[in-house]
């Protein structure tokens, strides 16, 4: 039985803080190594986990995540391995989503994917290259199983697009405040605050209470604290991937780096 991400957001709100959302692609550095890394992140303080489905044409990912996904693909990762990773992480009780480009889901079969995700205990999908107006098949399959549907808004989104997107989301809406590809950055974007304000204004009308998670290249606790001052969730991906890439072949060192980074970020969202 899956746990909706709204449960984690509600708990974080009750604690007077933002939720920490951590991302790694499945199969990185290996399938079992990835499961170990993700559960380490859970133990160290991640409230929600995003598991990436490695894809051969990751047009929206920066070089760090691309390198990790390519390593997983070179290792022979399959969609069944991604679902097995979801099952292992969801068993911790932390809401677990898959983040995926749409093509692999379509090839697998939308209804079949939704059922297998549900059976694995997954909370839902984040679909960066799928917008609600082109998602009727996914929306139908997700609604039949109460799966979360997380769509993206960006600084370039019109108010009309933001309203349409928030109305279609369940779980949270993903505000991507970086124009261009993903990746850790030295400073947070000045586009994030205004985007969250516009998104929350739309939510008041179309989806009261829907949380807003922000992804913009956060890589340390100080940046997490800054984003947590205006967002409901702080989404971190590239920094977690980098922590493992910096320790190739040394699982213990990678685990220690992940733990230290997660604890720093967890302090940040509570600051």
From TrEMBL:
Active-site annotation: 50 (proton acceptor), 61 (proton acceptor)
Enzyme class: lyase
Substrates-to-products reaction catalysed: (1S,2R)-1-C-(indol-3-yl)glycerol 3-phosphate + L-serine = D-glyceraldehyde 3-phosphate + L-tryptophan + H2O
Domain of life: Bacteria
UniProt pathway annotation: Amino-acid biosynthesis; L-tryptophan biosynthesis; L-tryptophan from chorismate: step 5/5
Enzyme Commission numbers on file: 4.2.1.20
Assembly and binders: Tetramer of two alpha and two beta chains.
Protein purpose: The alpha subunit is responsible for the aldol cleavage of indoleglycerol phosphate to indole and glyceraldehyde 3-phosphate.
Protein's name in the database: Tryptophan synthase alpha chain
Gene this chain is encoded by: trpA
